[in-house]
Write a structure and sequence with these properties.
By secondary structure, the protein is mostly beta strands. It contains 1 helix and 33 strands. Strand 12 and strand 13 form a beta hairpin.
Length: 397
């Protein structure tokens, strides 16, 4: 059994692959499973992952190291927007978003207790809420709402005990938040939640069955982050800060900075990544990985724990975003994946069905795998080990 495996999803064609690392051998394959790219993969204890099948309306628990890939399937409301669990990996919450619609329309929230085999659906508020599940004797579900912005606190037990028929769930507590929140993280130890906004990262700490607001962490830049992630290798938050003209047609001129805030020291480090489209990131053992898409050439950017920066050119995508068009609609992108317990990285080549396996220590490609679906929009991927610490981040990525 390999120490690490790679899961790759083509959410359009409905295929999920399991590959060994670093050779890239496909060992398992699911068909007819259209996973939510936005909700992503959620690391659970023991090398398992949770994800949502947006077509069938099911939360899946996958065990890529086991004999059977699908360990459990639980009906949930879709389209899935965000997915999170408590620090034990037992209690999960799934929020709903736009899907292929132009405006928010669903107010459904699903909570699942994997150990008890129970699930319930409630109505909250129409929108695209982020979600975290705080642990403790009585876990709390915290929804991050926009316009008006707020952190809405619900008792997990109350939601799970809701009567049939999707009743309205009234928050137990509310904490004001700016209207432009986008990006969530949790630090499980002290029970802190974080929400990325234009003014900085708003923080709150659990107190009883509610939240107490703490200091706002500034971006220390004219740009802002739209993605927030806890570094399980140390107590730090990461984001990519996007600056410049917000017009999507000007995407090739967007500026990008890696933002790392050490939660122990309070220090923030900014690193320039270059112009173009940079969004999600991935943690390898000693590196943080980003992909940068640009008309002049794409690259994998590796930021070492010692501050060194390595840029690895990537082959062009036939359907890549172009100058004068948007980077979102009808174009190909890339997904990046890594395990905090290993040195391997994976980068997809959307539209070509290719996955590049890279050694983060050298930047050299160890294998290039061609799958039998195109990996539309870059697909989605996660790289994990049985005990690599990835489960310390209890949000889907």
């Amino acid at each position: 059994m390999p120490a690490s495996v790679l899961l790759v999803s083509d959410h359009v064609d409905g295929a999920v692959y399991v590959l060994t690392v670093p050779d890239g051998t496909v060992t398992k394959r699911l068909t007819g499973r259209h996973l939510s790219e936005h909700a992503g993969f959620l690391a659970l204890p023991g090398g398992r992952v949770a994800c949502v099948d947006d077509r069938r309306g099911e939360l899946l628990v996958l065990d890529p190291f086991g004999d059977e890939l699908v360990e459990l399937a639980v009906p949930v409301a879709v389209p899935a927007e965000h997915l999170a669990c408590d620090p034990t990996g037992r209690r999960l919450a799934v929020t709903t978003g736009l899907g292929k619609n132009g405006e928010p329309w669903s107010d459904l929230l699903t909570v699942v207790d994997l150990t008890a085999g129970e699930a319930a659906r409630v109505r909250t508020r129409v929108g695209e809420p982020g979600v975290t599940v705080l642990g403790g004797g009585d876990p709390l579900v915290v929804l991050r709402h926009r316009e008006p912005g707020a952190l809405a606190v619900h008792r997990f037990a109350d939601l799970l005990a809701a009567r049939p028929g999707c009743p309205v769930a009234v928050p137990h507590a509310l904490l004001p938040l700016p209207d432009d929140g986008h990006g969530d993280a949790q630090d499980p130890g002290p029970g802190r939640v974080f929400a990325a906004t234009g003014t900085g990262v708003h923080t709150a700490r659990r107190k009883g069955d509610g939240l107490v607001a703490e200091e706002v962490i500034p971006w220390e830049s004219q740009a802002r982050g739209w993605y927030l992630r806890l570094d399980t290798r140390r107590r730090a938050l990461w984001s990519t800060l996007r600056g410049g003209d917000p017009d999507p047609l000007r995407w090739s001129d967007w500026t990008n900075q890696a933002w790392c805030h050490d939660l122990e020291t309070g220090r923030t480090l900014l690193t320039d990544l270059g112009p173009g489209l940079v969004f999600r990131l991935a943690f390898a053992r000693d590196h943080t990985a980003f992909t940068r898409i640009h008309p002049d050439g794409d690259e994998l950017v590796l930021l070492g724990s010692d501050g060194t920066l390595r840029r690895v050119p990537l082959p062009a995508m036939a359907g890549a975003p172009k100058r004068g068009g948007t980077p979102w609609e009808g174009v190909q992108r890339r997904a990046v994946a890594a395990s905090p317990g290993d040195h391997w990285l994976a980068v997809t080549r959307g539209g070509h069905g290719e996955v590049h396996l890279v050694d983060a220590r050298t930047g050299h490609e160890t294998a290039r795998v061609r799958l039998d679906t195109p990996l539309h929009h870059g697909g989605h991927a996660t790289l994990l080990g049985r005990n690599d610490g990835a489960g310390g981040d209890p949000l889907g990525r």
